[in-house]
# Entry
Amino acid sequence: MSKLRSKFVVRLLAGLTILILTAGLFSACGGKGGSAAGNGKGGLDYTVEPGEKDEYLGFWSAGPFGGVWVVGLPSMRILREIPVFEQRAAYGYGFDAETRALIEPENWGDTHHPALSETKGEYDGKLLFINDKANGKLAKIDLRTFKTVAITRIPNVQGSHGTAVDPDTRYVFVAAELERPANQSADAGEPGSYISMLSAVDPQTMLVKWQVLTPGNTDMIDVSKDGRYVLATMYNTEMAVTLEGMIKADRDGVAVIDIAKAEEAIAAGKYTEMGGTKVLKGAEVENLLQVVPVPKNPHGVDVDPTGRYAIANGKLSPTASVIDLQTLKVVAEPELGAGPLHSQFDDKGNAYTTMFLDSTIVKWNIKAAVEGKPKEEYIVDVIDVHYNPGHLAAAEGDTVSPDGNWLVSLNKLAKDRFTNIGPDFAENEQLIDISGKKMKLVYDMPIVPEPHYAQIIKADKLKPIEVWDLQEGALETKAEPVAEGKDRIERRDGKVYIYTTARRSEYGLKEMRVKQGERVVLNVTNIETTKDIIHGLAIPEYGINKSLAPGETVRVEFTADKPGVYWLYCTWFCSALHLEMRSRLVVESS
Ligand code: RUQ
Ligand code: CUA
Ligand code: CA
# Structure
């Protein structure tokens, strides 16, 4: 993985060097040697002492781990993982019929872009969405339970990439980075016929409501703060299939799709059916799609908190393009440095843009850039990060009111930052205090490869469940909560139903006796009412492994085809007698 990555970096560097030399832009990528690492003196207090709690929660895409890391800020401590696209034993995720159905058949993913649900442009702490770039999927996580509750496969696309919600979460939008033939089976595919599109997904049903064909590959996206436009950068307007081809044109573009116009066109029946969804041809429906030309191969596009501007980042150009969302014209192209990728914002009119190649974050003033002020004036500060930042994430960063205190640089390479751990290095997530004029680097957090984007929300906006109500806690379909003292075994409809409870430090049934070949439905309720008392249940020989929060019921089904004695044991250390917390499954040979 690291080899591939360094190859990519070398190539990008080579390409960029040529660009810089020809354009004579050496001066544009000075910017090194900004503020040095600080120790907290004079800035915000980032210490979270034992017993204190974090003010923010961050939701990190876990990249090829296929899930989400939950990180407390400013401590930068990892609090848990939310498994999404791949099985995870710790949470018993993917071990029962319902969660297995969510992740199959691939059972892996590559998560990039988490998007928190919003109400009136503010994170509301209800839902989190995240894409799987690998398998073209989108997942929904319920933030009451921190569980993945739905996964949708986006039809007609490969490489579902940029993910964003509108200010009232009417839609979740998903880009499709990797172009493919319109009809995979019928069209072995001359490159000229490849398509890309943007998908609008209903956050409730998780069904794709409509898709818009775009004149280039949709990569990163954002939605205007008034909910009018969804914007997508396209780095391959050439629709080429080679690197050379993809960097041929001097300018690519940002597709700007008018959401209301798309809805009207759908209502008027101006769509074609494709792969079971309604597809609009962006070029054919009047006023639906416009392309704002920007320098070649842009990457991130981010709407500023006021909603007036969208910032598209150059990647191969040392500039950002400031698009006025009232006129859809580029009103400024400030020079920022080498390899601008993504932007975030504070509450004072400044943008923060990652320079992948310079390994810096540049803080710049949007107004000054739009007014055509010289570079010394619109660039407010530059800070070194370690190294090669991709995304960056600010506290409440995608809302209409970012908090302007914490910013995290999600770096792609850590190099010398941490102790060597073999050829696959940790990544480095750096916490930066942005409360003052100068940015101040305060903390390095190593993390396994490799996060992309993150969302950071005020922790008190979330109201997670601590102890389930018994009925509500029988989440899995057809699970039946088992009340204390109601442990039993029933035989009906040709199946054996085992109902048992779990509490410190025993299962209600000490023995579960079935006959070889019987179909067993096992219902287990954790009847604890004390928070944080989790029990598990594992019967490894039958592939069973679940965890149970207080008040939660799980249901697993299996055919008892192997005779013998199998210990069902608790997998979470729940009490002094946790090791003794087990029960026998006895399968009598027939
Ligand atoms: S993309 S940095 Cu999905 Cu920028 Cu990762
Ligand atoms: Cu219950 Cu360990
Ligand atoms: Ca291009």
